[in-house]
């Protein structure tokens, strides 16, 4: 079928945009912006590759190093893996107790009359972190005796503050108009807390948890002075026996574990952040 002269079939390449009221062409439709990926490939790969390279270089150095009998004895029979596993256990257990103490306490301190106790509780939490970790551990050992319990209590007391303060700050930073609107549509106080307040406070809370995790990895090296084990055993053995390879192993593994924990926490911080709080492009 032929079309009339000067016209092209509908949908053909010569079709022009519909003219506006002033004879100008209408602007093209705006396409919705595509949300950027939460986790980029650089975030996923750069730090793990760096840690692998450092650990590989350390292993190659040990392969060609001339180790004496004392050094080999300190690093043999699974002592390194045992110390590493003890360190991971100390970090995970202490972080678990920090979360179940600090987050509920932070929520409680933003509710009604209980909020009046916030200055007192924050002062106590500040004392726990302001006290030198080795001094706090020594006092706990005198009180509780040598063992893992004293080390765990010291690590927990040292790491409560960032999670507690960030929980309180995140809940107090919520817009009162949003909370009033939630109450206005009939939400119960528990519903407002769980569906509005906590999701909005998640970024700050996760930042506090990330800080606490890294603090716990570092503080756990002091657990050896209270009989708690961990990578601090290798570090103190290397210092007291003046064996550099033992000291290097303990130090490198501690640094690598701290960086790995921080990387995993940063991924969790990105993935658990509510999408509604993400900044636009």
List the helices and strands and how they pair.
Blueprint: H1 41-64, H2 69-75, H3 79-108, H4 118-130, H5 133-144, H6 148-172, H7 176-184, H8 189-219, H9 232-240, H10 244-272
Helix pairs in contact: 1-10, 3-6, 3-8, 4-6, 5-6, 6-8, 7-8, 8-10, 9-10
Explain what this protein looks like in three dimensions.
- 67% of the residues lie in helices and 0% in strands.
- It contains ten helices and no strands.
- The longest helix is centred in the C-terminal third of the chain and has 31 residues, at 189-219.
- It is flat.
- The two termini are 49 Å apart.
- The model is unreliable at 1-6 and 11-17 (pLDDT under 50).
- It is a multi-pass membrane protein.
Highlighted features:
membrane, ABC_transp_perm/SBD, 281 residues, mainly alpha, disordered N terminus, MetI-like_sf, transmembrane helix, MetI-like
């Amino acid at each position: 079928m032929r079309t009339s002269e000067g016209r092209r079939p509908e949908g053909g390449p010569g079709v022009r945009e519909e003219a506006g009221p002033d004879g100008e062409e209408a602007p093209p439709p705006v396409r919705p912006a595509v949300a950027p990926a939460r986790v980029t490939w650089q975030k996923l790969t750069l730090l793990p590759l760096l840690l692998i390279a450092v650990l590989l270089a350390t292993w190659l150095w040990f392969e060609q190093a001339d180790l004496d009998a004392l050094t080999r004895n300190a690093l043999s029979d699974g002592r390194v893996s045992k110390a590493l596993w003890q360190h991971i256990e100390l970090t995970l257990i202490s972080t678990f107790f920090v979360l179940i103490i600090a987050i509920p306490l932070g929520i409680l301190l933003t509710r009604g009359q209980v909020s009046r106790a916030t200055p007192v509780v924050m002062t106590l939490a500040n004392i726990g972190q302001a006290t030198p970790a080795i001094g706090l551990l020594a006092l706990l050992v005198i009180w509780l005796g040598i063992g893992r319990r004293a080390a765990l209590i010291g690590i927990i007391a040292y790491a409560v503050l960032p999670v507690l303060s960030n929980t309180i700050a995140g809940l107090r930073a919520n817009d009162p108009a949003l909370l009033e609107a939630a109450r206005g549509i009939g939400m119960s106080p528990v519903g407002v807390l769980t569906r509005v307040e906590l999701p909005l406070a998640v970024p700050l809370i996760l930042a506090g948890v990330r800080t606490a995790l890294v603090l716990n990895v570092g503080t756990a090296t002091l657990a050896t002075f209270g009989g708690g084990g961990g990578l601090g055993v290798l570090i103190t053995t290397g210092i007291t026996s003046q064996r550099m390879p033992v000291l290097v192993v303990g130090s490198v593994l501690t640094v690598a574990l701290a960086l790995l924990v921080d990387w995993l926490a940063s991924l969790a911080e990105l993935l658990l952040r509510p999408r509604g709080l993400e900044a636009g492009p």
